[in-house]
C-alpha cells in the first residue's frame, strides 16, 4: 500500500501526495477495500486554500505515528470539496446534524458502504489520536453501536433530502416585497451587511436588492446596498493594493479577513458591484468593479479560463503576504509617504491583526489621488517580493460560468470591450475542454480535464454565462451550446416525481448514500436557482419548440421553492434575484438596428434592470427581433413584459420611461 494522490487532477489532493498516510481518492475500489479489510473509512474533505486544512495536515497527516495508526486501522480517503461537491454536501449535512456546525477540514468516519457514523471538523494531533483509538475500539468491540448509529444518520439524511415544503405562496410582488423587508430587518446598519461575525459577502442579496430597487424605487433598499458595498470595499476584506475580495471577515466590521481569495466570491461580487456601478455611477462602485475584474485577469487567469483560488497562507503563515506595520511602510515609502500611508490605510501601532501588524483599510478616498496611486504602486511592488500565497490552478466549470456572466456585465457597466472579450475567450476554452461527448465535466488541471461529472450548478452557471455573451455578440454558438446544456439538465437532473425540484447530481451519476439536492444557497448559489435563472433567460431567446417548455420549467421551480423565499430569504438570495426578474416578465428589450455600435442599443444595455434580456441587431436576426423593424429609418427599441410589448421607442429618454428607470 502507498499514497495514491500524486497523479490527481486536484491541487488539494496533490498537497497530500507526500503524506505518510496511504491516501486514495474516492472510488468504488476504495469502498471495496474497506469491506475486504473490514475496517472503517476515514474521509477527509477540504480544499487547497483552506487554512485549517493545512494546520491539520502539518499536525497530523505528516506525522509518522498518526499515519501508522491510520494506515493500520482505516482506509483513508481524501476528497477535494471543490471537485466533488456532491460528496461534500452529503457528509457536511451529516456533520452539521451530529455536531451543530460544519467546516473544513471535514473529518468523517464511514462504514464500507459509505454510511457515516461519526463526524467532526478540525482535530489537534493528540485529540485526533484519542479519537482514532476510540473509533477503532468501537468498530472492533461494539459493532452493533456503529451499525445503529450509521442507520440512524443515513435515515436522517434521507429525511432531510425527502423533498420541498409544499403550499408555498404565489411568486409575485407581495412575496418579494415581504422577503426584502425581512432581509432589511436583519441589516447591520452600522457596519453594513447582515448578521454578525464571521461575516460573509452577501453578493446574491446585493443583486436581489438592486433588482428590487429598480422595480420599486425604494430608497432604503439602495441605501442598504451602498452601505454594505462601501463597507466591504473600504475594509480589510478587500485588497486595497491589488483588488479582489477575501472569502469572509472574521469580525463584524469587515476589518480582518480570512485571507483566501476564491474565484466564485470575486465573480459574484464583480457582478453585484458592476450592477451597482451601472445603476448609480457611484465612483467607488466603478473603481471596485474595474479593480476586481483586473484581479481576475491578472491573478486567476490561465489558458483563457480562471483558476480556483489563492491560499490564505504564505510560507506557512496566514495573511503574511498582505499585512503591514508602520515601520514596513516607512521602509518602502520613506518617512513622509510612510506616515501618510499609515494614516490613509489605518495602520496603527497596536495593529489590527496578529503581532502588531495591520490589514490595510481605506475608510475614505484620499484627496491627493496622484500620491495615492504612487503609494499603492510602490507598496504592491514591495509586497510581490514577499512569499506569495499558493494558487489552486484547478478550473471549475460553475465558477468559470459565474466569471463569464460577471465579466460581460462589468464590460457593459464600464464600457470595456476587453472584459467582454475575456468572457468570450473563457467560454470558448471552457467548452472546448470541459464539454466531453455532450456532457460537462466538473474540473480540469493544466489542460487535462478530470473524470468527475459536472453537477447541476455547472450546467446552470455556464448556460447563464453563455446566454450573457449571446445577448452581446449574437453568436449563435453560445445560444446553441446553452440550449444543449439546458436540455441535458432537464433530462438528467430534474426530479420526475415533483415538478420544479432538482437534484444536484445526474440520474446516471455515481450512486452515493443518497442523491443530493440542496435548494439553499451556500458559498455559491444553489444549482437549482442557477438552472432556473438560465431557463428563464433562455425561454425568450429560443424558438417556440423550446420556449414554453423552458418558461414552464422555470415557473415550476420558482413555485416549488416559494415557501423558502418566504421563510428563509437570507438563505435563498439568488432565488430572490431570479424571482425579481420573473415577476417583471422578465423584461425583454429588442433593439432593431443596423450596427452593433448602435447608440440606442448601448442605452438599452446601460438602462436595463438586472435580469432583463437585451438583444440587438437586424430585424429577424434573433427570436426577439422577429417582426420587429426599424421605424422611419431609425433604430427602434421594443420593450416587452412576458408576451406583452409596448410600442417601439427611439430615444434613451423614451426607453428609460418604458423601463421605469431614471437616467
TrEMBL record:
Residues of the Spermatogenesis-associated protein 20-like TRX domain: 3-157
Pfam families in the cross-refs: Thioredox_DsbH
Xref: SUPFAM superfamilies: Six-hairpin glycosidases, Thioredoxin-like
InterPro entries linked: 6-hairpin_glycosidase_sf, Ssp411, Ssp411-like_TRX, Thioredoxin-like_sf
GO biological-process terms attached to the record: carbohydrate metabolic process
Protein name in the entry: Spermatogenesis-associated protein 20-like TRX domain-containing protein
Species for this entry: Mycolicibacter sinensis (strain JDM601)
Amino acid at each position: 500500500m502507498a499514497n495514491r494522490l500524486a497523479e490527481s487532477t486536484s491541487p488539494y489532493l496533490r498537497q497530500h501526495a507526500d503524506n505518510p498516510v496511504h491516501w486514495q481518492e474516492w472510488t468504488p475500489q476504495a469502498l471495496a477495500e474497506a469491506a475486504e479489510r473490514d475496517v472503517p473509512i476515514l474521509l477527509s474533505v477540504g480544499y487547497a486554500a483552506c487554512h485549517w486544512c493545512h494546520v491539520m495536515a502539518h499536525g497530523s497527516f505528516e506525522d509518522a505515528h498518526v499515519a501508522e495508526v491510520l494506515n493500520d486501522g482505516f482506509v483513508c480517503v481524501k476528497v477535494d470539496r471543490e471537485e466533488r461537491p456532491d460528496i461534500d454536501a452529503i457528509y457536511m449535512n451529516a456533520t452539521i446534524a451530529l455536531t451543530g456546525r460544519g467546516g473544513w477540514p471535514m473529518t468523517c468516519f464511514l462504514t464500507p458502504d459509505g454510511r457515516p457514523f461519526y463526524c467532526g471538523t478540525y482535530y489537534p494531533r493528540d485529540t485526533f489520536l484519542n479519537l482514532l483509538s476510540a473509533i477503532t475500539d468501537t468498530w472492533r468491540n461494539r459493532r452493533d453501536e456503529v451499525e445503529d448509529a450509521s442507520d440512524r444518520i443515513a435515515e436522517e439524511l434521507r429525511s432531510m433530502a425527502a423533498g420541498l415544503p409544499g403550499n408555498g405562496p404565489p411568486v409575485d410582488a407581495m412575496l418579494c416585497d415581504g422577503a426584502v423587508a425581512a432581509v432589511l430587518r436583519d441589516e447591520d446598519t452600522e457596519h453594513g451587511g447582515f448578521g454578525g461575525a464571521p461575516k460573509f459577502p452577501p453578493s446574491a442579496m446585493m443583486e436581489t436588492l438592486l433588482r428590487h430597487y429598480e422595480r420599486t424605487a425604494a430608497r432604503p433598499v439602495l441605501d442598504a446596498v451602498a452601505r454594505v458595498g462601501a463597507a466591504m470595499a473600504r475594509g480589510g476584506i478587500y485588497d486595497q493594493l491589488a483588488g479582489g475580495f477575501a472569502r469572509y471577515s472574521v469580525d463584524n466590521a469587515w476589518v480582518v479577513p480570512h485571507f483566501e481569495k476564491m474565484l466564485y466570491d470575486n465573480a459574484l461580487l464583480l457582478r453585484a458591484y458592476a450592477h451597482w456601478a451601472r445603476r448609480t455611477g457611484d465612483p467607488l462602485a466603478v473603481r471596485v468593479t474595474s479593480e476586481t475584474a483586473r484581479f481576475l485577469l491578472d491573478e486567476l487567469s490561465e489558458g483563457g479560463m480562471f483558476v480556483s483560488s489563492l491560499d490564505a497562507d504564505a510560507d506557512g503563515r496566514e495573511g503574511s503576504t498582505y499585512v503591514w506595520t508602520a515601520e514596513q511602510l516607512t521602509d518602502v515609502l520613506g518617512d513622509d509617504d510612510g506616515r501618510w500611508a499609515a494614516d490613509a490605510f489605518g495602520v496603527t501601532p497596536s495593529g489590527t491583526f496578529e503581532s502588531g501588524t495591520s490589514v490595510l483599510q481605506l475608510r475614505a478616498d484620499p484627496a491627493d489621488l496622484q500620491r495615492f496611486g504612487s503609494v499603492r504602486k510602490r507598496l504592491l511592488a514591495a509586497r510581490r517580493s514577499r512569499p506569495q500565497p499558493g494558487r489552486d490552478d484547478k478550473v471549475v466549470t460553475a465558477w468559470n460560468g459565474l466569471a463569464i456572466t460577471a465579466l460581460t456585465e462589468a464590460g457593459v457597466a464600464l464600457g470595456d470591450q476587453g472584459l467582454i472579450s475575456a468572457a468570450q475567450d473563457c467560454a470558448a476554452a471552457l467548452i472546448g475542454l470541459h464539454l466531453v461527448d455532450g456532457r460537462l465535466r466538473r474540473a480540469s488541471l493544466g489542460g487535462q480535464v478530470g473524470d468527475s461529472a459536472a453537477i447541476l450548478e455547472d450546467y446552470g452557471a455556464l448556460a447563464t454565462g453563455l446566454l450573457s455573451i449571446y445577448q452581446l455578440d449574437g453568436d449563435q454558438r453560445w445560444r446553441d451550446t446553452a440550449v444543449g446544456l439546458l436540455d441535458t439538465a432537464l433530462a438528467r437532473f430534474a426530479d420526475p416525481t415533483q415538478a420544479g425540484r432538482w437534484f444536484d447530481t445526474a440520474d446516471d451519476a455515481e450512486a452515493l448514500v443518497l442523491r443530493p439536492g440542496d435548494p439553499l444557497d451556500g458559498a455559491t448559489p444553489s444549482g437549482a436557482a442557477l438552472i432556473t435563472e438560465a431557463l428563464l433567460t433562455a425561454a425568450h431567446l429560443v424558438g417556440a419548440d423550446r420556449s414554453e417548455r423552458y418558461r414552464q420549467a422555470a415557473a415550476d421551480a420558482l413555485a416549488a421553492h416559494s415557501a423558502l423565499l418566504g421563510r428563509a430569504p437570507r438563505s435563498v438570495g439568488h432565488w430572490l434575484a431570479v424571482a425579481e426578474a420573473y415577476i417583471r416578465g422578465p423584461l425583454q428589450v429588442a433593439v432593431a438596428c443596423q450596427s452593433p455600435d448602435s447608440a440606442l442599443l448601448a442605452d438599452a444595455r446601460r438602462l436595463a434592470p438586472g435580469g432583463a434580456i437585451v438583444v440587438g441587431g437586424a430585424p429577424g436576426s434573433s427570436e426577439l427581433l422577429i417582426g420587429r423593424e426599424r421605424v422611419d429609418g431609425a433604430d427602434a427599441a421594443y420593450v416587452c413584459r412576458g408576451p406583452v410589448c409596448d410600442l417601439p421607442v427611439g430615444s434613451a429618454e423614451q426607453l428609460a420611461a418604458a423601463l421605469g428607470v431614471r437616467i
